[in-house]
Specification:
The structure is a single chain. The chain is built from 11 helices and 20 strands. By secondary structure, the protein is of the alpha/beta class. The chain folds into 3 domains: about 1-85 and about 175-220, Rossmann fold, CATH 3.40.50; about 90-165, no CATH class; about 225-320, no CATH class. The strands form 6 sheets. The protein has a 6-stranded mixed β-sheet. The chain has a 4-stranded mixed β-sheet with strand order 12-15-14-13, with helices on both faces. A 3-stranded antiparallel β-sheet has the order 6-7-8. A hairpin with a 2-residue loop joins strand 16 and strand 17. The chain is elongated.
């Protein structure tokens, strides 16, 4: 699967998926295996649509900011940079795709005079309740009604452009890109973005892209912090138990450490701002970190191939100083956060088509 990551706003996610090119999905059979990673600067909805629409690929992992109402992502460059791709805007772009087609067909005198074409216009207006269609009802004859419908359609385009602070040309361009993506028959979009799956935003996103879509119901986090080695067990136990409620402690057997258990690895994650997280990690030794990663993040290979040569994976000081950890932020559940290697991780992923 190809991954597209917002490199400006989520640079740690780029580091994470470079080191761990895999991710559980909602179902075990749909496990994500990344074979290409695009770390994109100045990511926009327009650039995503362009990539998807021209790639020929059918599955993508999209790592970017979001909320329950849609994507926290600019539509495009100026004049679209000030507008985020929330569910309202995505719906406007979809409707624009329809109305531009109807307006073009209105130029055909053979289409603009029949009941089927008028019905198509009325279907469009059924999705735009703010439009007063009284002028259509009052017109006499199908041709006159179609003419009035076209006038109202053009007025709707003007209002849509005003709402999105853009021009008709820019709206036409992005609507055409979205049309192309929907015709490409995508099979799956996986979002790793905060809370997109918790409300109606995911349904609108899935409809907009025309693909089965998966997204977390909770917040996601990516943290990069060197692991601090604590060489005495008593000291590590004391530090780990003092980390507070937004922390987890693990034994050498890779189970959650109880109050009396010796700790092999401990991690604290704190949400400082909406999309910002701080962390601290402690371990008894480097091997304990490696063992924890294999269990709770992703099992690492013993060898990697670099320029055609097999090289052992580093498991010592370099590894622990460059460790990047990701997970779901779940303080409302039993655990304050959940890691990809845990069986309850997929339960925080919602799906929609």
């Amino acid at each position: 699967m190809r991954a597209i990551i917002d490199a400006d706003n989520l640079p740690t996610a780029v580091q994470y998926y470079t080191a761990f090119p895999g991710e559980p999905s909602q179902q075990l059979k749909d496990y994500i295996s990344i074979d290409r990673l695009d770390a994109v600067h100045r990511l926009t909805l327009e650039s995503i649509l362009t990539t998807i629409g021209t790639s020929g690929e059918k599955e993508f992992l999209l790592v970017l900011h979001s909320n329950p109402t849609g994507l926290v992502l600019p539509i495009g460059a100026v004049p679209l940079a000030a507008v985020n791709a929330d569910q309202t805007v995505l719906n406007i772009i979809q409707l624009a795709s329809v109305v531009f087609g109807l307006l073009e067909d209105s130029q055909d005198p053979n289409l603009a005079v029949n009941d089927a074409f008028l019905s198509a216009w009325m279907d469009f207006f059924s999705n735009t309740p703010q439009v007063n269609t009284a002028a259509i009802s009052q017109a006499s004859g199908v041709a006159a009604k179609c003419t009035e419908a076209a006038k109202l359609g053009q007025l709707w385009v003007g209002a849509a452009c005003t709402a999105m602070h853009t021009t008709e040309a820019a709206l036409r361009r992005i609507a055409a890109l979205a049309d192309k993506v929907r015709r490409s028959s995508l099979t799956r979009l996986e979002f790793r973005s905060c809370r997109l799956g918790s409300s109606s935003g995911l349904k609108e996103v899935a409809s907009f892209f025309g693909a089965m879509s998966f997204a977390p119901k909770v917040r996601t986090f990516y943290v990069h912090q060197p692991v601090q080695m604590v060489r005495t067990q008593a000291q590590l136990n004391a530090i780990a138990r003092g980390l507070g409620p937004h922390s987890r402690r693990f034994t050498a057997a890779q189970t959650d450490a109880g109050a009396r258990d010796d700790v092999a690895f401990a991690i604290q994650v704190i949400r400082s701002k909406n999309h910002m997280y701080l962390s601290r990690m402690f371990a008894i030794n480097e091997q304990a970190v490696f063992n924890w990663v294999n269990r709770f993040i992703q099992r690492l290979p013993t060898m990697v191939t670099v320029n055609g040569r097999p090289i052992p994976v580093r498991t010592g000081r370099t590894f622990v100083q460059q460790l990047v950890v990701a997970g779901f932020w779940t303080p409302e559940s039993v655990k304050p956060f959940v890691f990809p290697g845990e069986s309850d991780y997929p339960g925080f992923i919602e799906s929609q088509f």
